[in-house]
Amino acid sequence: MIALISAGWSILSGKSQAAIALIGGFLLGALLTFLVVTFVYEGLRLPLIGQVVGGRVQTAVKAATAELVARSEVTALNAQLKEIERQRQAADAAASAARTRADLAQKETDDARAKLDAAIAADAGPDGCAFTDDDLEWLRQH
Fold it and tell me: Are 58 and 51 in contact (CB under 8 A)?
């Protein structure tokens, strides 16, 4: 193959050789320029290995995805914080309602106990049934 190219090259005249060398130089320069621009802009990615040389695009993609991940994490954490705050407010409201019900139940219990004590103290009837202190203590405990 090289011998064939050498034989063909020797047949050409000096002007033809110069023209072919000039066109070849332009093509070689264009090819080298294309390769340099491609490596700088895109980098080098091999099929089985992956990205070997990171270019401008690869760097921009990494920066954009890193920013996107950070932004999505912040958004998710803000949503979790709002949900925790909502749950805390609901728990506070439920606790307040439970305290109100407990206070009301305690008041009703105290009123019933006072009513019972008044009825026991007022019992001086002729039936002979009177509460002793032990009976009163048993009623208070049960």
Answer: yes
Q: With cut-offs at 50, 70 and 90, classify the pLDDT of residue 68.
A: confident
- Residue 23, φ and ψ in degrees, nearest 5: -65, -40
Is 132 inside any structural domain? no
DSSP-based three-state secondary structure for 113? helix
Domain containing residue 96: 63-117
The string of pLDDT tens digits covering residues 10-39 is 666 666 777 777 888 888 888 888 887 777
Element (H, E) at 44: strand 43-46
Residue 54: closest CA among 62, 44, 46:
44
- In contact, 44 and 53? CB cutoff 8 Å: yes
Asked whether residue 2 is assigned to any structural domain, the reply reads no
Using CA atoms, how far apart are residues 17 and 19, in angstroms rounded to an integer? 5
Say if 4 falls within a structural domain.
no
DSSP state of 13: -
Domain count along the chain: 2
